[in-house]
Amino acid sequence: MSWRDAAVLAARSVRRRPGRTGLTILAVALASALLTALLTISGTAETRVLDELAKGGPLAGIRVAAAEPDPGQVDRDDARPGRDKLLDDVALNRMRRLPLVRTVVPVVSARLFVTEPQRRSDGHPLRPFLARAVGVDLRRAPSLPVSILTGRLPGANSTDEVAVTPGWLERLHLTRAQAQRVVGDEVQVAAGRLFDEGDGQEVRGRWVRLRVVGVVAQEAGDGELLLPIGQVRAARRWTLAGAGQSRRLGVDPSPYNGAFVVAEGIDNVSRVRAQITAIGYSTSAPENLIASVRRYLRVVEIVLTAIGAIALVIAAIGITNALLAAVRERKREIGVLKAIGARDRDVLRVFLLEAGVVGLAGGILGTAVGWLIARIVGQTVNRYLVGEGLAGVRLVLPLPVIAGGIIGSALLALVAGTVPAWRAARLPAREAVGS
Amino acid sequence: MGAVSVRGLTHRYTTRSGSITVLDDLALEVGDGEFLALVGASGSGKTTLLALLGGLERPQTGTVRVLGEELDSLSGDGLARFRSRTVGFVFQHFGLLDSLTAGENVELACTLGGRPAAARRRRARELLERLGVGDRAGHRPVELSGGERQRVAIARALANEPRLVLADEPTGNLDRGSSLTVADVLRRLPDEHACTVVLVTHDLELAARADRRLLLDNGRLAPAISSGPAAPVGTGTGA
Amino acid sequence: MTRLVAGLAALAFVLANLPGCADGRKAPTVLPAGPRKQRAVFVVIGGRESSGSGIDDALHKAWPQIVFGSQFPNGTVYVNLARNDTTVAEAKVEQTPLAIEQRPTVATVWLGEGDDDAGTAPAQFGSDLRILLAELRRAGAARVLVAFPPPGAPGSRFASEIATAARSTGAELVPLSARAWDPHAPRTRQATVQAAAAAELGRALKR
User: Fold this and answer.
1) Is A350 an 8 Å CB contact of chain B?
2) Contact B211, B157 (CB under 8 A)
3) What phi and psi, each to the nearest 5 degrees, are found at residue A420?
4) For residue A109, which phi and psi values (nearest 5 degrees)?
5) How far is residue A95's CA from residue A64's CA, in Å, rounded to a whole number?
6) How remote is the C-alpha of B17 from its chain's centroid?
7) Fewer CB within 10 Å: N-end or C-end of chain B?
8) Nearest residue on chain A to C15, alpha-carbon basis
9) What are the start-end ranges of the E strands in chain B?
10) How far apart are the C-alpha atoms of B154 and B185, rounded to whole Å?
11) CA dihedral A265, A269, A270, A274 (to 10 degrees)
């Protein structure tokens, strides 16, 4: 008897007992639904938490300040920097050559005088103010802790585009949910430069008008504006070329105000931080926070998986029980099959396939139901999050979970069906004529 | 050479209360194309003998040869092949698979006999037609009468053109009318299908149609029971 | 078990307190860098009329701000180097090098009032102005606009030197309206002059 013939026979047999088969499929489906839902929810929670911790950038990122390390702070996530120290290309190149460093992205910043917009969102006049602008090579934005809340990033070489941060929204009295309202706004900024004027000093501006193209959450540096690095450098050049005491205009003379160093994987963050400290710069990275959150997430995942696994074991016992009952009931039928020429392995195949069909059907149904449950949970959570003005979650059903749910259920059913199938195969043909 | 040759066949069953000898140094020869009826009281070992002849069970002592082949020398798969191609079984309980239609039941036997897929359906249709149940091919066993079911079962037994048909109380669950029809069918098998038929029954009318009747008593076949229609024998209610 | 509960509680807290917005966050997509465009650079050289001093809300009402805001596209760099009471000789050595440093594409020059007060000789004025304009042109300023004061306005006594210097350097003369100057109302004068200058220089830039 071929596998195909055995499959037809198994399918017919499954259909002949719709009640029992249905209940067994339901048990498998419930278990795999539970597992799928739990894994999807825990996977999404992990992605969300780690995304938030990374703020869109790599989790293996380390912020380097243009400052000496404070010996008492080196192991802290939010280490307080020591005394100012020039951060130049020589230092950055040393960092680039360190082992386990994937990339080094320099960060510059400047203080800009803002005269446009002139009004807040509620119509109140907005007096000119000083805002810090952060400049990075935007081609390397994916390596940076920058994520887009709305709109997009400025073009890497653009001279007329700017992205603003939630700090800017606050200044305009806007909530994050209203971020879209600032996209398209025009912003007029000036870098100041001190000029000696007789017995005093006068500030002259280097003005630029920019268009807001997006709102970003960024942790590359403190600032309300995010610009291509060239723009911020030009502004700094203007300011730093002025008469002495340029620091009064808030511009640090260090060529770079900081750098973002990405290690080769989250597990190497500590070692890279130690190496940068040895070079003589202060670093900070949320490694301790991420490590503890990951530990908790792992525990949650283990607990949820264990619950799902227990459900699957219960389902497997259900399959075994149902098939054993079927073997008991169908002793004579098995005997007849053997009497008309079925070999032991033919009978084994039929029963294994019956188990497999039940497992596969349960797996498909369960994975679909599990995804549905996860979606419903996701929507409920989203309603709450959005109501609280927080970012919603986007559920992702990972392919391994789908494949695992379906194939795993089928395999589990096959394992569960092995003993009954073996028993059936070993039944003597004499059962055909047994009384 | 006869179709069946049994020598020194002894078979015991062990129960909690001890060992029961069902067949005791039994010898039997069945000629090719013969229609033999085995009769005997209930528990006399008729069905056990039938199971041994059909390779459903292995002999404990003695030899069973069917068409020259000694069954004890066959492997498990060899016995399965023997059951599918050399023997056809007809059971009192019909033994049809409820999940399959009448046609599919016959086709299943063809499948186990190794017939190619295309030939199976043709063979099943042909047999069901010849047994007068061609119009019932698409029905499930529960939709058939007892007589129809047994004719389907006979069609299945004949699926792989067996040289030996073994029937265990084939009319035991049938009304009189159906019994007669089935009896007729079985009687014609040696002529129409060139096979030997060994029948276990307590239906005297059916036994009377056999070429030869043997009485199984105390594990042995009673010697001189004459051929041809004979006086009623046995009073058992089944094997 | 207690630790597990504490951990779950911490996780719930982290989840509930994460910042975000209703439409969710996206990882940044990098736009193709695109070619570096030659950006417009607008520099202003001049005296009191251009420096914005004495005007209410100079950040929005001074004519250079108005012209910058209305005549140039986003991304244009604008630097105003004007200084009160400056003479053309001072502008030549103080403002012009800074202007050239910015690599201007468009420059405006409005001088004369400081030289009126300083009593600069017209010939000297003309010579210094020509050098100043020529340097701007040499630095790459495709357009150099020179304010041409109407009769009676400050610097009007240098009118012919201004015209000659502009002609000889390829700079464009922008005649300013006489109506804007009202010698009896100095406060309004500034605002009116600024508005008129913005309109006239703006029109000139459009050409």
Assistant:
1) no
2) no
3) -60, -40
4) -145, 160
5) 10
6) 31
7) N
8) A49
9) 4-15, 18-30, 35-40, 61-66, 69-70, 87-90, 164-168, 196-200, 212-217, 220-221
10) 9
11) 130
Question: Could you give the residue ranges of the DSSP H alpha helices within C76-112?
Answer: 88-90, 96-101
CB within 8 Å: B81 and A341: yes
Structure-derived torsion over alpha carbons of residues C55, A241, C169, C132, reported in degrees to the nearest 10: 70
Tokens encoding A290? 């991420």
Q: What is the pLDDT at residue A397? A: 72
3-state SS string over C135-166?
HHHHCCCCEEEEEECCCCCCCHHHHHHHHHHH
**Residue C144, beta-bridge partner list:** C107
Sequence-ordered list of residues with C-beta below 8 angstroms from that of B49, at least 6 positions apart, any chain: B9, B23, B26, B28, B38, B200, B216
Instruction: Tell me the C-alpha to C-alpha distance, in Å, between residue A164 and each of A109, A154, A177, A328, C128.
Output: 14, 10, 14, 73, 45
List of residues 6+ apart from A118 with CB closer than 8 A: A125, A126, C60
Q: At residue A398, does pLDDT exceed 50?
A: yes
CB contact at 8 A, A4 and A374: no
- The answer, for A390 touching chain C at a CB cutoff of 8 Å, is yes
Binary contact (A12, B100; C-beta < 8 A): yes
Note the ipTM here. 0.88
A412: left (phi over 0), alpha (psi -120 to 50) or beta: alpha
- Asked if the Cβ–Cβ distance from C20 to A52 is below 8 Å, we say yes
Within a 10 A sphere around the Cβ of B193, how many other Cβ atoms? Answer: 19
> Model's pTM, two decimal places?
0.57
B157: amino acid identity, one letter: A
Question: pLDDT tens-digit profile of A337-382?
Answer: 999 999 999 999 988 898 888 888 889 998 888 888 888 888 888 7
